[in-house]
Amino acid sequence: MERDRSNSLFFIRNGKVSMMQKVSYSYITDLTDNTFLGEIGVLTGKPRTLSAKVQDYSHISSITRTDLFWISELFTRAFKALKKVQSELNCGIYKSAG
């Protein structure tokens, strides 16, 4: 619901979700397959600006803000490690076993 703290990012795998602004009683848009919602609040920590309502049978995945940032950090470290190995391979530090 709008004005709530955003603790999760959602991904609509399939289905339909309507976005509304309850303060002004306004329909904004429908989100469908392969669409994210909640990303602004999760990334900024600010309250939600819209409310969402599922319209049809939908398959929606979610990830918490804590887990999203943990995974981002984990993959950032892995990416940096791979780039270091790549650089060392390019400089000839590692020798081929074959």
Report on this structure.
- The chain is α+β, with helices and mostly antiparallel strands.
- The chain contains two helices and six strands, in the order E-E-E-E-H-E-E-H.
- Strands 4-1-6 form a three-stranded antiparallel β-sheet. Strands 3-2-5 form a three-stranded antiparallel β-sheet, with no helix packed on it.
- A hairpin with a 4-residue loop joins strand 2 and strand 3 (26-31).
- The protein is elongated, with a radius of gyration of 20 Å.
- It starts with 7 loop residues before the first strand and ends in a 7-residue tail after the last helix.
- The mean pLDDT is 85.
Q: What profile does the largest beta sheet have? A: 3 strands, antiparallel
- The residue fraction in helices comes out at 25-40%
Which descriptor suits the 3D outline?
elongated
Distance between the termini: 60 Å
Q: β content, as a range?
A: 25-35%
Low-confidence runs: none
Which key terms come to mind for this protein?
2 helices, three-stranded antiparallel β-sheet, 98 residues, alpha+beta
Summarize, please.
The chain has 2 helices and 6 strands; from the N terminus they run ββββαββα. With 98 residues, the chain is of the alpha+beta class.
Chart the SSEs and their pairings.
Layout: E1 8-14, E2 17-21, E3 26-31, E4 35-37, H1 39-44, E5 51-54, E6 59-64, H2 65-91
Antiparallel strand pairs: 1-4, 1-6, 2-3, 2-5
